[in-house]
Design brief:
By secondary structure, this protein is an alpha/beta fold. It is 47% helix and 11% strand. Strands 9-10-12-13-16 form a 5-stranded parallel β-sheet. A 4-stranded mixed β-sheet has the order 2-3-1-11. A two-stranded antiparallel sheet has the order 4-5.
Amino acid sequence: MPRGRIKRDTYLNVLSEKKENRIHEASLEILEKTGVMVQDEETLSRLEGEGCSVDYKTQTAKMDESFIMKGLKRHPKEFLLRAVDPDQDCCLTSGNSLLVTTSPGMSTVDLDTWEPRLPLPGEYYEYMRVIHGLEEIDLPGSFPWVGFQGVPECMRLIEGFAAKVRCSGKALWEGSTMDNYKFMVSMAGKLGADVWMNTNPTSPLTFSKDTMEQMKYFCENDVVFTLTSGPIPGVSSPATLAGTLALNNADILAGNAIAQMYAPGCRCMAGGMILTLNMHTGAPLFANAASYLSEAAFVQMWRRYRIPCVTNSPGWSNAKSIDYQAAYETSTGFLMLALAGASVIPYAGGLTAELTAHPVKAVIDADVVRMVRRILEGIAVENETLAVSLIDEIGFAPASYLAEEHTVDWYKRERCDLELADTDTISGWLEKGKPTLIEKGKEKMKQQLLGTLAYRLRPGQENAVKEVLEEARAYYREKGAIQPEEWKAYKRVLDALEL
């Protein structure tokens, strides 16, 4: 069975049916009265042909309910994300799948000083091998680091993408800068896999020329992609959660309708990334209750539309180190949005905003993923689990269930064993030298790197990866995005990798 599929009995709903209907109606009203700005004449022409009211001078299109609902009806309710290793294929449905990914960070972080820095090439490859060995993590997230030292900016994501496919056969999710998504789509295609890409409308209600070029490319080439506008209440959306939710919903409804206009049945997901504002610094405030509440409502809306959705906020903390703050900020959101029915949640490994991530954090987070998945399984209520006959047989105290076969069969199945949590007595903990969670995470990471069976591409696949990398390097050198001095340093990095 593909990764991700789960069976759910119930969901966490943060909106009543009445409120859900009002959000939906408000989103439709926004699109009909205000419309969206689309900075692409071809798309405006197509929208006019679909009956939308188009103003070419202002580059705006007003969309009525029938056009939006047509887009929702065309959307597949379930689809596959093909991995390089077919055993790692992922199923995506609305509400009945949960994929857990790594969370993005620009840099790694020193576990002694907690200062960020761009990772070394070997560290990036190690991180990917760690993710390959963590059963709880379904796929490496978009990035999770933005490249590594010695690589020109235009090639960082492409080199990181190559590290992913070389170190793990898991499914692939990637971000993009410039036009490098084309090279990653090409590389995945040569390996017989999908790559799930991001494209970002700009809140409020704007589809830039670059966004439209990406969307059209993804539709033409059957690329899985997410639409995420990322509104910030009080800045790029109303300060109220309801107003932000209605506007964000309108952004994604419009994007989906445009995508389904270009390619009916295309594999497009709704992306939730609602951040609040830190009024003291002017920066987004990550890991906030308002963000979690807003995204849980966003998930509920897209369950209504029966379209898979990804929600981003659980992967980010305001904490600068792996500590109690990092734990409660990210894990609260992860549990809440898993219960709400998000199809995909970036969670593991992320620390400070989108700035830092670390594989030791991902190793620790795997315990939380295991616990949350057990909670989602719920309570099995059937004759064997109710155990009425056994209760009658055992009778009254001081009788015990301890030696019963039923206890042997069910005890481990009903609980959740964690690998890194310290469940020893305090005397046992003292005797072991008072190990900290970070120390245990480091040790598990080391064991994984030593013990995990290394993943290798077949020779033909490795050659395909090298061909695409060479094509991308030549392309960006010709465009002047890689300067001669950068190229010399870059070559030294590639030689040191020995790939």
